[in-house]
Write a structure and sequence with these properties.
Shape: globular
Number of domains: 1
CATH superfamily: FomD-like
CATH topology: FomD barrel-like fold
Length: 166
Amino acid sequence: MSANSADRPRQVDVVLVKAGRTKIRYPAELLADDGTRVTVRAPWAGSGTRDFGFVRFEPGDVFTEHYWRDRWYSVKEVRTASGALKGWYCDITRPAALTGAELVVEDLDLDLWRSADGTDVRRLDEDEFAESGLTERDPQAASAALAALDELESRAHDGDFDALFS
């Protein structure tokens, strides 16, 4: 953590907001905050197992989550309880805000999955995004969201994905 983050709590609540309502809130350990990127670690916060068909999130899985104050996405590294890398789940969001012990991000419906070996890259929930009405309500935000998804997909295919974390 940076020197200016010494007064920040080591524990934060991650609050994912969608359509103006809290979708999920869970405690996480604050690992780093450099003023631009906030990194936290938390166990799988869902109830039970969530099977996407291409990956399963299960009790015991550990998520190391990276949130940016200046980017329209967050990236979550997903590992099994034994430490095996499953891959990265990327949420398209408005830039994150850390206030006190609360890290708030607004989910914009678009997602991207990148498998551990990089061979499976999937754009997700484009239908939900289209149905959300964001394009009509806030065209600039919709444009930023789509650009963020394109950037992540490009990085995932071009081998530039790991540069996100350096």
